[in-house]
Design a protein that fits this description.
Blueprint lengths: L10 H15 L1 H17 L5 E7 L12 E8 L7 E2 L12 E7 L8 H11 E12 L4 H8 L12 H10 L2 E9 L8 H6 L2 H9 L6 E8 L40
Parallel strand pairs: 1-2, 1-4, 2-3, 4-5
Antiparallel strand pairs: 5-7, 6-7
Length: 258
Amino acid sequence: MSEHPFAQADADWLKLIGDARDWFNGPVGSMLLGAEQRMLDEELQRFFGGYLVHYGPSAEPAANADKIQRSVRLGAPFSGVEIACEEQAWPLTEYAADVVLLQHGLDFSLSPHGLLREAAHSVRPGGHMLIIGINPISAWGARHVFARDALGRARCFAPSRVSDWLHLLGFALEKRRFGCYRPPLASSGWQSRLASLDSWGDTWQSPGGGFYLLVARKLVSGMRPIRQSRREPRGVLVPMPVANVSRCEPEQSKNPPD
């Protein structure tokens, strides 16, 4: 795929994706992608089917799963992208994919709701959507607030918020995981010294990881995930007094009337 934009592509969107690709190619972004890839290699082993669609700004090749026949990279017209398209105009039919992976697609998007709807439209009933995003409640989220590079332009949605969006689109959340507990430091030496933080975080699954992974399943058409309602305390049944009504006929007088 050439580096030249296709006709009518949004210039702001292309600039955002291009800057994000440069950031992911740097030392901090590469460390984050490495931690994500290790988790994806583990999670994707349980999925099967015909097609996996991978959308995201990084230049990494499409994610592979042993039990899925074909993986395809979708996105802006940069190197490594197999099918170029805008974020709200995927050239896929409804229910075309068994698995859709949005890897930082929502973080670097001009219309996150539109992108999520487009991705959901492409997943078959019973298929899965995986979403990876930068966790705002982490050291990475804190750096996002003050960064002047592409990370500063990321949206960094909370995983609970994205879960609510998935629920409205007819998906049931199956799993939520966190990863990359090392702080976003560019020094390779400090990255090596703090590598043990990832092992600790992966073991305890603390919600302070630099990224989150959501795994959601698309329900059969017409069904919606049911949330458990909060149980209200029930009142106590108290027996009420009942009047004793006699059903016997009144006794007639023994003396007949005159």
